[in-house]
């Protein structure tokens, strides 16, 4: 679990996160975040490399491109996040419907049990409970208690935050706010529960590698390349957009992104 969390952190925060350290006026090293355009170019280059020269995902020659296994691994990692996001939304929707029933009614108890099943499904898709030196029980034994604490939480903002980052078109600033706010709002549940919920948020939120900003800028770059009559570069960006939107359809459906894509396809006719 720790290794997978570190891999996700590297992909999300390090791979296309910031430039090399630069010297400031005091002589200390300081890293600057990459611009959305730089991230879009980096994402397109990585996807193109992993797909191979023909864009099929087939293993290219040793002197060119990456391996089909690496491309499949990348897609699988992105798909895992998409599945988790869908599961979180399904749980939050089911939990929100509990207010429609009398807490003493049979319908409420049935709906509550169904919502808990959905939360257990969320737990099966994310990181296990971390080991705690202060706990006398096994991590697996603590999970039901953590899920019950989360399910019974009175702070509605916790679920608003989770719903926001479970939507793939959330902004990088929304992701940063979620990581800052969730530990504060879940602190009363205990350290183990708070860490687990933060891990869930990290697994659920879009990172610097793939997000709506990167896709929108890939579309803009595809337009620029087409207008410069560089069809090969245009196809590189469009292929990247196709890979990402196949897993996260919503990121290609924003007002600006979809509008620019329709405009590009109109120019291609």
Commentary on this structure:
The protein has about 270 residues and is an all-alpha fold. Helices cover about 65% and strands about 0% of the residues. It is built from eleven helices and two strands. The chain has helices at about 1-15, 35-50, 70-95, 105-125, 140-150, 155-165, 170-185, 190-205, 210-225, 230-245, 255-269; strands at about 20-25, 30. Strands 1-2 form a two-stranded antiparallel sheet.
Features of this protein?
single chain; mainly alpha; 11 helices; 66% helix
Largest sheet: 2 strands, antiparallel
* Uncertain stretches: 61-66, 133-138
Major beta sheet, strand line-up: 1-2
Q: What is the number of beta strands?
A: 2
Q: What integer value in Å does the Rg equal?
A: 21 Å
How far is the first residue's CA from the last residue's CA? 49 Å
| Residues in helices, as a percent range | 55-70%
Secondary-structure-derived class = mainly alpha
The geometry reads as elongated
Number of distinct helices: 11
Mean pLDDT level: 85
List the helices and strands in order: HEEHHHHHHHHHH
What percentage of amino acids are in beta strands?
A: under 5%
């Amino acid at each position: 679990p720790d290794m997978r969390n570190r891999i996700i952190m590297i992909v999300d925060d390090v791979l296309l996160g910031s430039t090399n350290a630069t010297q400031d006026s005091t002589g200390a090293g300081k890293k600057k975040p990459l611009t959305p355009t730089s991230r879009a170019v980096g994402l397109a280059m990585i996807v193109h490399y992993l797909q191979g020269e023909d864009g099929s995902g087939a293993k290219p020659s040793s002197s060119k491109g990456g391996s089909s296994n690496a491309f499949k691994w990348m897609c699988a990692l992105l798909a895992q996040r998409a599945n988790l996001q869908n599961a979180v939304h399904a749980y939050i929707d089911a939990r929100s419907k509990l207010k429609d029933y009398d807490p003493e009614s049979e319908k409420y108890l049935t709906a509550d049990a169904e919502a808990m099943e959905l939360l257990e499904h969320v737990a099966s898709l994310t990181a296990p409970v971390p080991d705690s030196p202060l706990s006398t029980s096994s991590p697996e034994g603590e999970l039901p208690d953590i899920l019950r604490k989360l399910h019974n939480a009175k702070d509605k903002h916790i679920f608003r935050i989770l719903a926001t980052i479970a939507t793939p078109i959330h902004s990088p600033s929304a992701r940063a706010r979620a990581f800052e706010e969730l530990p504060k709002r879940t602190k009363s549940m205990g350290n183990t529960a708070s860490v687990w919920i933060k891990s869930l948020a990290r697994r659920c939120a879009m990172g610097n590698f793939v997000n709506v900003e990167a896709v929108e800028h890939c579309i803009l770059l595809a337009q620029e390349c087409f207008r410069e009559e560089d069809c090969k570069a245009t196809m590189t960006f469009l292929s990247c957009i196709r890979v990402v939107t196949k897993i996260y359809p919503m990121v290609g459906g924003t007002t600006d992104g979809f509008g620019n894509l329709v405009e590009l396809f109109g120019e291609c006719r």
